[in-house]
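WARN retry 2 of 3 for item q-0093 after timeout on previous attempt; input resubmitted unchanged.
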Amino acid sequence: MVIQKGTNMVYFVGAGCGAPDLITVRGMRLLAQADVVIYAGSLVNPALLDYAPEGCVFHNSAVMTLEQVISCMTAAETEGKTTVRLHTGDPCLYGAIREQMDRLSGLGIAYDYCPGVSAFCGAAAALKAEYTLPEVSQTVIITRMAGRTPVPDKERIRSLAAHRATMVIFLSTGMLAELSRELIAGGYDGDCPAAIVYKASWPEEQICRCTVAALADTAKAAGITKTALIVVGHFLGDDYAMSRLYDAHFETEFRKCRHFEGENQ
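OK item q-0093 returned
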């Protein structure tokens, strides 16, 4: 995507999960053409700001209210400037972008949205893991513990744990003892594999493998108190079935079955 000259707009851009080269090419190009960048300073890697041009004005939204963010966007629009709203990971997950987009719509300010690499993808890469192993789990549940932001009753950890699917749990590192209790009460065994992934793809990335029952003790021993994802499920184990996708006996639209000597034709 290239911004046409004379076209001002607000672009919501996913910054990726940490490493500056994990932003999308489109996101990088949008940053390179921005007049104003409003970035989540508590989570976005500041190295990403180097993609912005000289003279770009930066605002750290970590110290701003919603009203201040919208006011900043409105001022840029009035001045005919292009704004990039830079969110960590992919802003569709816990990014609080809906309220921003609705306010812009109400003000008649045009906006667009460029996705990014979510931390749950970064965590899988750090673990060198596949969340959806055949005959282990074909479902990924992305959720969080209830904290200052509540969750609907039907989406509480205990209820979701009953599926015993792969779970990726955001924003819950400070509540790991309670998280373990809820996971076990919901259906996971205490010895089910789990991992704590701190700042996936950052230079200080840290991976702690443990069990559901040991989450709190593991984090305490590692000194991890925030900015980590918790992943839970038997996809972290060694037992799984082979995919049929590349099975020589499995025919697809693009590949016919192969027959081997001694087999019935």
